[in-house]
Design a protein that fits this description.
By secondary structure, this protein is of the alpha/beta class. 41% of the residues lie in helices and 14% in strands.
């Protein structure tokens, strides 16, 4: 079979996402009822980390183990990458020994080159440009709480980073809208975001305008990994882009709040919001586990009748 990779959100079709979200909800239901689901009992996941991680590592490792598989956890220091071995050589070797690889790294070109020489599926656990596994979990969370996201409005407040880029791609694939508000100098770069058009997003200089009527407000830290030298400069630039109670009141009455975590209360979001009734950040974090289990299964196993039946239950 042709090897499928998951490097950007737009790598899958809307129909495939419908399947994945239904499958994730079934897998989660089994998990909550302590019913074993171990279809990957003879499969091995290699995880390569060049960036630190909490949620990505725990969710992938726990998910693979819960489905009966095994996990090898590597950092660049654990491999010859730290001594200059070409990425393509590392990919050729590792992917002859494992069944799937998850990589959390810097430039998107690194994971693209690895996947070019890989014999097995490669999953983007985060790059500077994209974070598809996060948005997979976020949309699963929205569906659980509010139903279909088609036609809805998501307000992104803050930096146009990898998470923002992935929301924009998701809007194109799943047919919803994104309102983006960033400080001057931090606007969306359509080419970097990998967008086909401007049809599904609009930019707002004032974050309150972006929040008006939104069904979901979401944000991220102002300073991402690798940008620590810019921290003080960013704190000043982003001071008016804090999601607070007034901003939530501008959205729909039943609007949700999400944050991919870790969060800095008092910076990009107030404690009142992230710990308040609109927040679903803990469901969102947990859903990294269930969404990625569905993703691993999808990449490693053919879609069978049992899976199709379980999808229809939701």
């Amino acid at each position: 079979m042709q090897v499928r990779h998951y490097l950007q959100f737009k790598d899958f079709t809307r129909e495939e996402y419908d399947y994945l979200f239904g499958r994730a909800r079934w897998i989660k239901d089994q998990f909550k009822r302590y019913i074993p689901h171990m279809p990957l009992h003879d499969r091995t996941l290699a995880m390569i980390f060049e960036k630190h991680s909490t949620r990505t590592r725990v969710s992938f490792e726990a998910g693979m183990l819960q489905m009966g598989g095994t996990v090898i956890n590597l950092t660049s220091r654990d491999t010859q990458l730290s001594r200059g071995e070409p990425i393509e050589d590392v990919a050729r070797v590792i992917t002859r020994m494992v069944d799937v690889v998850m990589i959390r790294t810097y430039e998107q070109t690194i994971i693209e080159k690895f996947s070019e020489y890989s014999r097995v599926p490669v999953i983007n656990g985060l790059t500077n440009e994209y974070h598809p596994c996060q948005i997979l979990a976020d949309i699963l969370t929205y569906i659980e709480h509010r139903g279909s996201i088609q036609g809805k409005t998501v307000a992104w407040i803050g930096d146009s980073n990898n998470v923002c880029n992935t929301w924009l791609q998701a809007a194109e694939v799943l047919d919803f809208n994104v309102h983006v508000s960033t400080p001057p100098g931090y606007e969306v770069e359509p080419e970097r975001a990998g967008l086909f058009s401007h049809a599904h997003y609009e930019e707002f200089p004032d974050p309150m305008d972006a929040a008006k009527g939104a069904d979901l407000i979401t944000t991220d830290v102002w300073t991402s990994m690798g940008q620590e030298a810019e921290n003080e400069k960013r704190k000043k630039a982003f001071a008016d882009w804090c999601v607070d109670a007034d901003m939530m009141r501008a959205a729909q009455k039943d609007a949700l709040f999400m944050h991919c975590l870790p969060a800095h209360r008092g910076e990009e979001v107030t404690a009142e919001v992230i710990d308040g009734p609109h927040s679903v950040v803990w469901d969102e974090a947990e859903n990294r586990l269930h969404a990625q289990k569905a993703l691993l299964e999808f990449l490693l196993m053919p879609r069978n009748q049992e899976a199709e039946t379980s999808r229809k239950l939701f």
